[in-house]
Specification:
- By secondary structure, the protein is of the alpha/beta class.
- About 45% of the residues lie in helices and about 15% in strands.
- It has helices at about 15-30, 45-55, 80-85, 95-100, 105-120, 130-135, 140-150, 180-195, 200-205, 215-220, 240-245; strands spanning about 5-10, 35-40, 60-65, 90-95, 120-125, 160-165, 205-210, 230.
- Strands 1-2-3-4-5-6-7-8 form an eight-stranded parallel barrel, surrounded by seven helices.
- Strand 2, helix 2 (about 45-55) and strand 3 form a beta-alpha-beta unit.
Length: about 250
Amino acid sequence: MRRPFVVGNWKMNLNLADAKNLVRRLDHETVGIHNVDRGVAPPALLIIPLRPELQDTRILLGAQNMYHEPKGAFTGEISGPMLVDAGCQFVIIGHSERRQHFGEDGPLLQKKVKAALDIGLDVIYCIGETLQQRDGGETNGILVRQLHEVLIDGLDWKRITIAYEPVWAIGTGRNATQDQAQEAHQHIRLWLKNKYGPDAASQMRIQYGGSVKASNAKELMNMPDIDGALVGGASLVADEFIAIVRAAIPK
Ligand code: PGA
């Protein structure tokens, strides 16, 4: 049985005071929920000051990105060991905004995923097709390529979550339908089965991301291969975030 995992990807939003209020409310109003994992990925500057707020809560602390080298002359970057030192438990790698605006490609993301796992961070690896690719019937091929070029042999798959995030659904208010999402998730799981075997495929979590909100979370979460959500905009609003965590509670 896969435990759903709901993560707020706050992107470049919130100040410290608002972030503290948000996690306090999230903790307070979901404290009794034991069968949904949840976490937040704040902007890097907020990770250290938020850490004490998250101690003794069930909310995991993560980062939105990291560099693969452990240290050195890489101006502006943050390394895996630094994230661990700051208290992070997981890191998001390969978000489409990183691919699109910062030129991150398969070979780089492969190094990042490996470096994150090696230092002890769990990984949320994001994949997804653009609208043009979907319209061109390329969705499955794109997903397989993004999996294949980054998830190499020998990785500790137990510590990897896949996030399926169709690019056309991110921040647009237009989510994938439950059937579109389920179909993609099923395809991803099949690839995982071929790569890492049936045990891995049945245990690895695949989150859906892209305009998840309180009003559509339940129908998405009800699908058999959707194991939680990676939430952007709605995770900035306490009521929405809390409702999405509740919607992920297994039946
Ligand atoms: P959104 O973003 O929920 O605002 O669409 C999701 C994401 O980018 O992870």
